[in-house]
Batch of 2 targets.
Target 1
Amino acid sequence: MSDSIALWRAEHANFATLLDLLEGELDLFHKGGSPDYELMLNIMFYMTHYPDVLHHLKEDLAFARIKEREVNARPLVDELTEQHAHLKEFGAALVRALDDIVNGSIMAREHVEVPGRAYVAEFRSHMQREETAILPLAAKLLHDRDWAAIDAAIRHIDDPLFGKNGEVRYAALRGQIAREALAPKAITR
Ligand SMILES: [Fe+2]
Ligand SMILES: [Fe+2]
């Protein structure tokens, strides 16, 4: 497996961890508990500043190359590209809902729960579709020179949460991720 495909999968695993955390907060909310809005906003800040900005952009460039080489993949690529735009809209809607709650302008729990559940479901199904349908095609059709061209075409940013030089703003979120990783699943929620 090329490094690029391995990195692609690793990023999906990171996003899945964050979606689990987000869902945990929504579950808490649903049961009448007090969710950690700060944590949820930090997760969404990351989602809208790394996956939306770099991961999906890189995928769009990889998809364009796949589409050129495999005519049958065109409908799938169009579907996934469209989902990137939807995820951006869903993410923005969730951030707005969280801001409303934090600012105290809206108190109804459905206000966050509905866009939160929609975001988690849409992101998970998108990654699932990519893992099963497009990653195998990318592994077959894209070579090192393609990945080099893709990397050269985008402005690289280090992953601000999971990267080596993680940003300070995510310190609390990193701590939560580490605690979740150590906690036995049965008693985490
Ligand atoms: Fe994607
Ligand atoms: Fe992806």
Target 2
Amino acid sequence: MKVLATYNIKGGVGKTATAVNLSYLAARDGLRVLLADLDPQAAATYTLRVRPRVKGGGKALIKGTDFDNLDLLPADFTFRNLDLMLDATKKPTQRLARLLRPLRASYDLVFLDCPPGISLLSESVLHAADLALVPIIPTTLSLRTLDQLTEFISDFDGPRPEVLAFSSMIDRRKRLHKEIAERLPAERKDVADTAIPALSMIEQMSVRRAPVAAFAPRSAAARAYAELWAEVRDSQF
Ligand SMILES: Nc1ncnc2c1ncn2[C@@H]1O[C@H](COP(=O)(O)OP(=O)(O)O)[C@@H](O)[C@H]1O
Ligand SMILES: [Mg+2]
């Protein structure tokens, strides 16, 4: 079982859109996928519409979705207290990784959709993940935060996630966006070749309440996420 996470200290950069679309594409490829919505804002949960189908055993918290092979751990407003709950445990940063372990029998991929910020929760997410996917809107500042993240992770005891950043919400009319998005993958090994453009079809996900490939399979948006998923799949599976 692989654990992937979308992470960025900032909100509104495309973490949830990426988590939902890549989880869907992984499930469509036949992997058994659980998307865990760890953000009390619950955007992933809203987009995927929870099905009341409750799976057996001790997994009553996990719900089905409209899509084969794709389950959801819905966000809960109490998740705003996850930091406090983690803080009350021994070895808080290892706790999430331990909680995920029993899921190994049921899933090939657990995708953690992280809230913004750098908290005990995000630290735990990074400890639990095999790969942290970091959407960056290309500016000099966002590259600095990527370097800070890499440094932060390099100090971890025990397993460290790989970091794969990618250009997100690229506005073709902005020259700086285009330039940085084209240059970065050649210059840095930790930046994916795929860039996700700013596209209104991606905003439509919260109206259609589905991954973009499910309602607009031939769109540029669906193609961009398929390309990103292919990069991630080839590096992890
Ligand atoms: N590539 C994109 N192009 C256009 N809109 C996007 C794109 N990615 C995300 N959005 C929209 O921007 C908003 C924030 O995206 P979201 O994925 O929720 O960010 P985060 O999870 O990082 O806070 C949402 O309304 C989403 O629909
Ligand atoms: Mg989000």
